[in-house]
Amino acid sequence: MSQQDRSRPLGSVTALSAAYDTALLDLDGVVYAGGQAIIHAVESLTTARDGGMHLAYVTNNALRTPAAVAAHLTELGVPAEPSDVITSAQAVARLVADQLPAGARVLAIGGEGLRVALEERGLVPVDSADDDPVAVAQGYGGPDFPWSRFAEAAYAINRGLPWFASNTDLTIPSARGIAPGNGAAVQVVRIATGAEPQVAGKPLPPMHRETVLRTGAERPLVVGDRLDTDIEGAFNGRVDSLLVLTGVTDAAQLVAAVPEHRPTYVDRDLRGLLTGQPEVTVEDGTARCGGWTASVRGQELVLEGEGDALDAIDGLRALCGAAWTDGGTEACVLDAGKAVARLGL
Q1: Rounded to whole angstroms, how far apart are CA atoms 240 and 55?
Q2: How many CA atoms, within 13 angstroms, populate the side-chain half-sphere of residue 167?
Q3: Is the pLDDT of residue 308 over 80?
Q4: Quick check: is 26 catalytic?
Q5: Which residue is catalytic, options 28, 225, 228, 267?
Q6: Is the pTM of this model over 0.85?
Q7: Using 50, 70 and 90 to split pLDDT, how confident is the model at 328?
Q8: Mean pLDDT, residues 312-338
Q9: 5, 21, 26, 131: which is the annotated catalytic residue?
Q10: pLDDT digits (tens, 9 = 90+) for 52-67
Q11: CA distances from 9 to 261, 288, 311, 323 (A)
Q12: pLDDT confidence band for 91 (50 / 70 / 90)
């Protein structure tokens, strides 16, 4: 999908795993949730890899090291090496290292993944604002991260130190539902300091730069569950994307998406990597996909279907075509409630 054409999801006559050389896969909400593999993820990734697609795992979660993430993936049945994993901790560490001399002391507010990434760039992580740091780096510290760490960050930033954040995702998927993410923790420090961090993670350029440097992808496909990180990151990087509905984004949010949040392709889960994608046609504001037709009536999106084997995802693709065409360069404000509810997604 070109940067100018965001009026509908696109089709592909070729399986996506063959059309692209590298899948840049988000983890939380795409491959696993709460540490457990998402349904169809393991077998889909295995088939894509066996068919020649390179798999790279690109996560805004800065908590764990690439080695720990790779070990977890391997345990789930998706063999991976640390070099296959790119984290926002690595991206923020490079951002910090580009601005500070080697050996600089950095107050690390986060988990092991952040500390290891800083050390990889020749920086020295410290624990206290009184340890003479020259900058603050903040990343997700996990659900039990102590409140005192946010205070330590505030002390240092209020003394004038530059502040860097791995990412600003407000939420993170877990086995029990949606939990506060690093963006919520960043907001705590922001309130205490009035400062703004330099941010490295998706959807911003430092993360895309880190991913390209580490993977060497020539025809990448971003695969994610979040519109404001994965899909917007692909948009900013001018590469194609696949949204899967196994994480944060629901059908109603997708239908109402602004152009930079509209993915190239839409599918239920990672099985979408293994197939082509049906064409969505739009004519005079009416969108068609499979046996579904979506159109605008007054201030409402209407969905109609014919045939015995209607696929709800095709209906969602049709709704996106009608809504995105109507919205143009803005979010669609039409009422899509009844149409979305009919799909049961």
Answers
A1: 15
A2: 30
A3: no
A4: yes
A5: 28
A6: yes
A7: very high
A8: 94
A9: 26
A10: 999 999 999 999 999 9
A11: 12, 11, 15, 11
A12: very high
Residue of 186, 118, 184 whose CA lies nearest to 157 = 186
Of 126, 105, 123, 114, residue with least CA distance to 201: 114
Query: Contact at 8 Å (CB) between 339 and 302?
Result: yes
Does 28 qualify as catalytic in the annotation? yes
Relative orientation angle of helices 112-120 and 66-76, to the nearest 10 degrees: 130
C-alpha span between 303 and 315 (Å, rounded): 7
The beta strands (E) that lie in 248-319 are given as 265-267, 281-283, 286-289, 292-297, 300-305
Question: Which pLDDT belongs to residue 309?
Answer: 72
User: Pick from 287, 171, 305: which is nearest to 227 by CA?
Assistant: 171
Which segments within the chain are labelled E, that is strand?
A: 22-25, 32-33, 36-37, 54-59, 85-87, 105-109, 124-126, 135-138, 163-165, 171-174, 177-180, 198-199, 220-224, 240-244, 265-267, 281-283, 286-289, 292-297, 300-305
